[in-house]
Amino acid sequence: MASLAARTSSKALKNVSRTVGRSTVSPLAASRSYSLLARSTVAAKPKTTFENVRGVKTLDFAGSKEVVYERADWPLPKLHEYFKNDTLALIGYGSQGHGQGLNARDNGLNVIVGVRKDGASWKEALEDGWVPGKTLFPIEEAIDRGTIIMNLLSDAAQSSTWPQLAPLITKGKTLYFSHGFSVVYKEDTHVVPPTDVDVILVAPKGSGRTVRTLFKEGRGINSSIAVFQDVTGKAKEKAIALGIAVGSGYLYETTFEKEVYSDLYGERGVLMGGIQGMFLAQYKVLRANGHSPSEAFNETVEEATQSLFPLIGQHGMDYMYAACSTTARRGALDWAPIFEAANRPVFEKLYESVKNGTETRKSLEFNGRSTYREDLARELKEIDEQEIWRAGKTVRSLRPDYKQ
Ligand SMILES: NC(=O)c1ccc[n+]([C@@H]2O[C@H](COP(=O)([O-])OP(=O)(O)OC[C@H]3O[C@@H](n4cnc5c(N)ncnc54)[C@H](OP(=O)(O)O)[C@@H]3O)[C@@H](O)[C@H]2O)c1
């Protein structure tokens, strides 16, 4: 679908300087919704005025009160008015650049993309309808044209490109990140923002692909927001508005430091590293005891992902336990504390490795190599070739909705 932002962009790009009081957003954009599915719902509502915008929510999270900001507080006309003089310059078009950029464009904002000319991301941006010279530029030019500089390069590239990019981030612009990585680990990354710009963060809690698919479904991903530097007094408000603009449904407040510690820890732990390690350990013991690959896979991965984990997601751990046999429940209740005790020292070690910067240095070294894409692909291929995941392919092929 041709984006409205793309259609209005040539006009907008002639007016990239902050021209207070004049909107560069087409009136058509004001009628566009947060997503294709939600559009009809919003369109059916009576005219939205800023006065009827709801307040933020203070919610009780297990006894701890936290403020949550939500999309309903930022109806599209308010969002358009707020960003009427801004050009969002997305630097980098990987997973997050793709998701956040397309969502902000579909929301009717002025968005441009800056990537290495003729690199893999340039080609992907072309395929997504970004137009060279209008909405797609080499990195330096996009920064020059943007008022809000959204640094969505890989974390390693944010560090290696900083000496060239930093002088372009001039007074009046806003510097945006989706991870606290570069700024928090400044001794290693050498990313020290200029002191005269707002520095903010919107970190979606999921991959950029999910940022996009949830938006298209009319939902919105949960994101964290944080302020590192508030020069204008408006940094937090801007972070919230940008969070909604890029497709978040709910925004939770944090700091750059807490965001990066929890994120690096979580992905190395339960979300990715831990889950692969647990799956593999369980599978190997089953295989060593004579179980077939299909039985070992079904009992380790298939039942988890297809039956039990979705129940945890929907209603919590106790609900999943209650949905299983009394035999299963007894065993799970007995063994859970044993796994907790065995794993806790590993998690303590992991958190320390995140906090002291070891994980950051490893990531910068590895992802800073010119061969980082090939090197990562080689290691992922090794996982793909493990027996457990080869068995998984055959199990998955039997599903009625299987697609290769
Ligand atoms: N992915 C996630 O799940 C996720 C979730 C939340 C937050 N974040 C954060 O969002 C930010 C972006 O992450 P991502 O996963 O979307 O990006 P990514 O895939 O790690 O990075 C891809 C982008 O970086 C560019 N790039 C790499 N090396 C470069 C270099 N030396 N010079 C110029 N450009 C270079 C690539 O361009 P080429 O194609 O030209 O190489 C591409 O556009 C990061 O701070 C990340 O931590 C990511």
Compile the SSE list and pairings:
Elements: H1 4-13, H2 27-30, H3 36-44, E1 57-61, E2 64-70, H4 76-82, E3 88-91, H5 95-106, E4 111-114, H6 120-127, E5 136-137, H7 139-145, E6 148-151, H8 155-165, E7 174-177, H9 181-184, H10 186-189, E8 198-204, H11 208-216, E9 221-229, H12 235-245, E10 248-253, H13 256-268, H14 273-288, H15 293-315, H16 317-322, H17 326-355, H18 358-367, H19 372-384, H20 387-397
Parallel strand pairs: 3-4, 3-6, 4-5, 6-7, 7-8, 9-10
Antiparallel strand pairs: 1-2, 2-10, 8-9
Helix pairs in contact: 5-11, 8-18, 13-17, 14-15, 15-20
This protein binds NADP nicotinamide-adenine-dinucleotide phosphate.
NADP nicotinamide-adenine-dinucleotide phosphate (NAP) is lined by residues 92-97, 115-116, 119-121, 152-155, 157, 160-161, 178-179, 181, 203-204, 207-208.
- The helix-and-strand class reads alpha/beta
CA-based shape: globular
Order of helices and strands: HHHEEHEHEHEHEHEHHEHEHEHHHHHHHH
**How widely separated are the two ends?**
26 Å
CATH superfamily assignment of the largest domain? NAD(P)-binding Rossmann-like Domain
Associated small molecules: NADP nicotinamide-adenine-dinucleotide phosphate
